[in-house]
């Protein structure tokens, strides 16, 4: 430490001085509110799709099925493609929007005001009179999600000093978990509103994080990397001085200028992603996004009320129990913020893989024994035990795969392919999220309790992938990933040659 600053040790013996400045913290918090809207959208879907008045208006066949006692299977109450499209359309739209976001983050800056998409989408959803209006609103929300998920992780990684990059980046995931909990609390409260209009208030309250995101985007500083990349060298140097809290920024500034020079020589960043030297971060980013979705966590968060309804726990109990995993999600993400830059990325991913695997299997065994196609034998006691197991599973995801699935891709691509690489990463994430949201209720109907064993298999595979192929990136400056990470790995070093 020197003069209260945080010294970041470099490979060549040089040190970059950086303090934890107020402008750094404020910009990080404001930018991370992009995750608040994303989390609210994740949490709100399952709540409204379990509300009788919502189903009665938009999905009457599903509503009728939930009231029948002589179904072929309790697991199939909510198996409806239209109902699944309500949830999944948001992610399909986000998938498309992220490629436009790649261009704008390169040309216009890292932080974009995607709040207008969110606000218009919220208005359409809350005022929806038919299914088409409802889906269009979700699509506009998806456009906002695509832009926010592209910009925010990059922004946080680029403004952060190296030694707190992991913790600052995870603010995005923390806001996602807060959004999920907020949605669960809103679902619980609005379900009690008389007149059957609680679902409109639930969808309308998404306007709060949307406005917060819009205002937050107006107050954040642009990243030095982005300003320098667009030719604003003096502005970039001044912002770097402000966020680092020191005048001793020349060495870091010169490295950013050199990285920008190299980046400008790349005319086709998406094509350059396929070069041998760029394949390690590309492969790992795609794999992490794929595995993150096939842990089953988001499917459980989307449809938690529906799952608990399948277990015949009662409508009010369902929404009450849904709040608990949301609270666990936030607490465990705070644990990740504290640990990620101390313990590293790999150890969190591996330990969490074991924890998730164990609790997924326990959940499958309990539901397989206690819940049959036509019975509602799962007592409140057993139901609470299942919720506890789900909380343990959610906890493992929240301090590992949830935040690190966003952190690692955002910190491993070189500047010349960073926006393109983040676009591919977000695209894969949203594509897999769309597939899971669109297919989960049908899978639940056909797999029954074995759906949890299906996810367990993926968790086993992804843990093996991390053990063999994911290197540690803790405390490594972004611009030195090639030399200090990829060229030191037993497999990826074979690809690190110029073409």
From TrEMBL:
The keyword Cytoplasm does not apply. It is found in: Membrane. The chain crosses the membrane at residues 20-40, 83-101, 108-128, 134-156, 168-189, 201-221, 282-306, 318-340, 347-369, 381-402, 423-443, 449-470. GO terms for molecular function: monosaccharide transmembrane transporter activity; symporter activity. The keyword Calcium does not apply. Residues 27-474 form the Major facilitator superfamily (MFS) profile domain. InterPro entries: MFS_dom, MFS_STP/MST-like_plant, MFS_sugar_transport-like, MFS_trans_sf, STP/PLT_plant, Sugar/inositol_transpt, Sugar_transporter_CS. Keywords: Membrane, Sugar transport, Symport, Transmembrane, Transmembrane helix, Transport. It is a multi-pass membrane protein. One of its GO terms (cellular component) is membrane. PANTHER family: IP12678P, SOLUTE CARRIER FAMILY 2, FACILITATED GLUCOSE TRANSPORTER. Belongs to the major facilitator superfamily. Phosphate:H(+) symporter (TC 2.A.1.9) family. This is Major facilitator superfamily (MFS) profile domain-containing protein. It comes from Solanum commersonii (Commerson's wild potato).
């Amino acid at each position: 430490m020197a003069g209260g600053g945080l010294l970041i040790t470099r490979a060549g013996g040089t040190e970059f001085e950086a303090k934890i400045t107020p402008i750094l913290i404020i910009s990080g918090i404001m930018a991370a509110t992009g995750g608040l809207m994303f989390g609210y959208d994740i949490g709100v879907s399952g709540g409204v799709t379990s509300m009788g008045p919502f189903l009665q208006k938009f999905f009457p066949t599903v509503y009728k099925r939930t009231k029948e006692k002589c179904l072929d299977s309790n697991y199939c109450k909510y198996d409806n493609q239209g109902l699944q499209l309500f949830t999944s359309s948001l992610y399909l739209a986000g998938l498309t929007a992220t490629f436009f976001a790649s261009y704008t983050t390169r040309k216009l800056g890292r932080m974009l005001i995607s709040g207008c998409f969110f606000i218009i989408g919220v208005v359409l959803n809350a005022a929806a009179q038919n299914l088409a209006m409802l889906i269009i609103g979700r699509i506009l929300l998806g456009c906002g999600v695509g832009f926010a998920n592209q910009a925010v992780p990059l922004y946080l990684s680029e403004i952060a000093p190296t030694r707190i990059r992991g913790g600052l980046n995870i603010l995005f995931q923390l806001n996602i978990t807060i959004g999920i909990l907020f949605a669960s609390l809103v679902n619980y409260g609005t379900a009690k509103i008389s007149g059957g209009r609680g679902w409109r208030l639930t969808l309308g309250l998404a306007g709060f994080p949307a406005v917060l995101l819009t205002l937050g985007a107006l107050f954040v500083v642009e990243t030095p990397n982005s300003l320098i990349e667009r030719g604003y060298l003096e502005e970039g140097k001044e912002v770097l001085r402000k966020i680092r809290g020191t005048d001793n920024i020349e060495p870091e500034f010169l490295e950013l200028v050199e990285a920008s020079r190299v980046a400008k020589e790349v005319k086709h960043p998406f094509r350059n992603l396929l070069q041998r030297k760029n394949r390690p971060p590309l492969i790992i980013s795609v794999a992490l996004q794929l595995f993150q979705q096939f842990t089953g966590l988001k499917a459980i968060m989307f449809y938690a009320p529906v799952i608990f309804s399948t277990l015949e726990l009662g409508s009010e109990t369902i929404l009450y129990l849904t709040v608990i995993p949301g609270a666990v999600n936030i607490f465990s993400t705070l644990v990740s913020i504290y640990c990620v830059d101390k313990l590293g990325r790999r150890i969190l991913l591996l330990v969490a893989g074991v924890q998730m695997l164990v609790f997924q299997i326990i959940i499958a065994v309990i539901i397989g024994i206690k819940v049959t196609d036509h019975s509602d034998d799962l007592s409140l006691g057993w139901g609470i035990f299942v919720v506890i197991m789900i909380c343990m599973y959610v906890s493992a995801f929240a301090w590992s795969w949830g935040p690190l699935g966003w952190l690692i891709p955002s910190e491993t691509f070189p500047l010349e392919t960073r926006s393109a690489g983040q676009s591919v990463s977000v695209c894969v994430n949203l594509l897999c999220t769309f597939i899971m949201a669109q297919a989960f209720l049908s899978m639940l109907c056909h797999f029954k309790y074995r759906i949890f064993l299906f996810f367990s298999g993926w968790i086993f595979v992804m843990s093996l992938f991390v053990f063999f192929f994911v290197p540690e990136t803790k405390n490594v400056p972004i611009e030195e990933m090639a030399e200090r990470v990829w060229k030191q790995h037993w497999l990826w070093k074979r690809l690190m040659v110029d073409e």
